[in-house]
TrEMBL record, chains A, B:
GO molecular function, one term: 2,3-diketo-5-methylthiopentyl-1-phosphate enolase activity
SUPFAM superfamilies linked: RuBisCo, C-terminal domain, RuBisCO, large subunit, small (N-terminal) domain
Protein name as annotated: 2,3-diketo-5-methylthiopentyl-1-phosphate enolase
Keywords associated with the record: Isomerase
EC number: 5.3.2.5
Keyword match Isomerase: yes
Top EC group: isomerase
All residue ranges annotated as the Ribulose bisphosphate carboxylase large subunit C-terminal domain in the record: 114-372
InterPro entries named among the record's database cross-references: RuBisCO, RuBisCO_lsu_C, RuBisCO_lsu_C_sf, RuBisCO_lsu_N_sf
Gene3D superfamilies assigned to the protein according to its UniProt record, in alphabetical order: Ribulose bisphosphate carboxylase, large subunit, C-terminal domain (3.20.20.110), RuBisCO large subunit, N-terminal domain (3.30.70.150)
């Protein structure tokens, strides 16, 4: 079986055969014309295959190469180095997609919880979830953390995540954030009957992460936020293999360095969604095309599709993020459906009546979408940010 | 103290103040105008600073932001997520450089051997080293491996590296490659009096790498090749922290996905050289501008400069690679000086008289550069590939 890589290559049509052959041979057995008949027989099964080649537009070729699974080990580093190691240095070539045979998924656990598992943890079915993000947390202390956490939780959000740029700093150590959050969120649950999960940023020296994650779970951590793209996909895969028993949330930080260019790197749907889901992300954050950081609607749609499509691993929750406010809820549900986590920072904290009202505005917007009546927090948000 | 990040941003001159301020505030304390005087006093030391801003050309700005060291932990993930996490998703912005205060280098071991240490291991002073790469090794067996290793070693190269796309496969397991190489290279040393170091590709599940590297060293591994850009810089930093006692060689595979675009990602000198040296690479491979995969001469020169410039950590050996043949030796030494490892695959194996003659052609080329007489292997190579 092969791993099929789809590339977009800025080359003229006249080069298509040479380019395709160069990939299939050059990135596997190295040469073919120099080989003896005996060597060819033996090496046939290690040789890349040209699965497809076509001209997309002038000077833009699409080539699909099948790499024998047995050439690589089931590590992202191995797969990526084979299909896009040397090739990434070779001019305007973009890796658009990787396709694996159904049987190859046995090497990847994928999401431990996925959409269904997270819905069960939170006891919420049939509607999108809402997540909020700490704001202005850098340089702040435990009192600020606790107050902001409580305000967010009281508004009705389902999840709260650390700012991805908050690490394990002396003012707000990892362990204490977990413990404070458990106390606060247990109080909120007793008060309101609603479960809220806090995702603490798992950070630090890479080989300390397994022990640190286990210690976090022992202290009661209920989810981890993880900057997978600055650590590497194999690190997420390695954390997933630990069976920590809590959801893993993949942050898109740094992914733009790999996917931002139209002509280089990987596509956003591949790096942000397909590979992080495969590595074990239960929740996949991505910049929504309606907010402040903008991807195209087509790209965002493809990211969501990669999160939820039927595969031998569980579906991951797509989490549209960045510049989200309650007035965008309609558009988000129309675009991505019920299985998403709507994620907001400024759109929660910037509410005229504070973060709790900000959270309420989102839940009111969702109620309204599903036929409920409008609420005052939502109306205030829409007055401020539009809809 | 601050970590100073230099960005190139495709925006008009009219935006320069707003852009610079957005980075300094937005990527640190989040907001400033909303804060009370008391909060501002407290948060001043966590706030990013605009160190410099200038217009490079129409619609191209250069902005330097200083991020307080105390905002991050000394992990690449943390540093990169802060300076280029969210920002990487924000359009045409390229991270050109990171500058650290002298004192900040205490968090990074840098190369364990570096140029001086590797020269001592090999007993070669005052001239460039030569490295050769296995060719057509995918799908081959131990007999092929052993024969090709011996042929390369007999020619006079100083180092031999695995193909970066050869992993720990059943046909050629990691452990056996190490053991075969030790036997062969000890024999070559007895025959010729020359030491040759073989760098085995360290690959596999990321959290197994420390144990695997230690096992490799116990079996006699004398260097590791490492696909740092598909694993992550922190993984290399973590391996360096183990004090394995053997050199680490950083392969450039996948770096083009991060550095290839002129408008997105990181610069090649930063990702390929500065950060891998900081992480602990003793040898830094990069595509030479004279060979098959081409960077500009300016970029390649900047990569070499980052490998060798005076810092509180050792210098790393720059290793120009890709399409190198003996006729390029003059140009390489003229461009990069004596402290480099000239690295060739096809330029060794493609020699009319085989790999041993290919290695000899390189040593003859270096002899000739330093005033020796020409040799027959070199002459044959020049006849074939030019000079």
């Amino acid at each position: 079986m092969t791993i099929n890589a789809t590339y977009h290559i800025r080359q003229p049509e006249s080069k298509i055969d040479a380019v395709a052959e160069k990939l299939a041979i050059g990135l596997t057995v190295g040469s073919w014309t120099d080989l003896t008949a005996e060597d060819r027989d033996h090496l046939e099964r290690f040789k890349g295959q040209v699965i497809e080649k076509k001209v997309l537009e002038e000077n833009l070729l699409e080539v699909v190469i099948g790499y024998p699974e047995s050439n690589v080990t089931p590590d992202f580093s191995s797969i990526i180095t084979t299909v896009f190691g040397k090739l990434s240095l070779d001019g305007e070539v973009k890796l658009i997609d990787l396709e694996f045979a159904a049987d190859y998924y046995r090497h990847f656990k994928g999401p431990a919880f996925g959409i269904e598992g997270i819905r069960e943890l939170l006891g919420v079915a049939g509607r999108p979830l809402v997540m909020s993000i700490f704001k202005g947390i850098i340089g702040r202390d435990k009192v600020f953390f606790e107050e902001q956490l409580r305000a967010q939780a009281l508004g009705g959000v389902n999840l709260i995540k650390d700012d991805e740029i908050l690490y394990d700093v002396p003012e707000l150590p990892f362990e204490e954030r977990i413990q404070i959050a458990n106390r606060v969120l247990d109080e909120v649950e007793q008060e309101t009957g609603r479960k809220v999960i806090y995702a603490v940023n798992l950070s630090g020296p890479v080989f300390d992460l397994p022990e640190k994650a286990r210690r976090g779970v022992e202290l009661g951590a209920r989810a981890f936020l993880f900057n997978v793209h600055s650590y590497g996909l194999d690190v997420l895969k390695g954390l997933r293999a630990l069976e920590l028993g809590v959801p893993l949330m993949a942050h898109p930080a740094f992914s733009g360095a790999i996917a931002g260019s139209p002509d280089y790197g990987l596509s956003y749907p591949l790096i942000l969604a397909k590979l992080t889901r495969l590595a074990g992300a239960d929740l996949v954050l991505f910049p929504a095309p309606f907010g402040s950081v903008t991807l195209s609607e087509e790209t965002a749609g493809a990211i969501v599709a990669e999160c939820v499509k039927t595969l031998p691993i569980s579906a991951a929750f797509p989490v549209p993020s960045a510049g989200i406010h309650p007035g965008l809820v309609n558009k988000l549900i129309d675009s991505y459906g019920v299985d998403q986590v709507i994620n907001a920072g400024g759109g929660v904290h910037g509410h005229p009546e504070g973060a709790a009202a900000g959270g309420r505005a989102f839940t009111e917007a969702i109620d309204l979408y599903y036929g409920g009546t409008t609420g005052s927090a939502y109306e205030q948000a829409v007055t401020l940010w539009g809809s």
